[in-house]
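Take a record.
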Amino acid sequence: MSGAKERPAGLATAGGPAFLVVGKVRRPHGVHGEVVAEILTDFPQRLRPKRAIFLGEEHVQLIIASQRPHNEGLLLGFEGITTPEKAGLYRNQILSIAASEPYELPEGEFYFHELLDLEVVDEVGNSLGSLTEILETGANDVYVVTGSAGRELLLPAIPEVILEVDLVAKTMKVHLLPGLVNENRER
């Protein structure tokens, strides 16, 4: 049971996200207007030439002209951006795609934004609260469940704990393993 790294970036009128964050421009590279982009998605193939991408909080649409690997990220070129000075204007800007173009996930995997706010219940149906945050750790994600009294429960996102996710009913059924569940996370 895992979530895909693509976080919401702006709300659509129906209440869901309008855009999903897939990367971040770090800095210009070279003399032809390319930028170094940090990958913030499990699906870097989304960042391919001829693809529309949206930049920054204003979601300015650009078309990717070129893409190639660079260290642990990508070098991206955009149509109409041909100088390092123009590329420098996009430094530290978020790159998003339209949420209406989701990448189809394998069964049992969900986007983070689909999981947030689900009601979390134990095996017998007792409400534990709602999923309010997803922490990305080295081994597996950790789901932060906040109860009505503000108490937090930390659940590892592993098959032994996450039994069922029902997006239609907006619920997540879990099994509480003794010794694996941490309560009252310090902030």
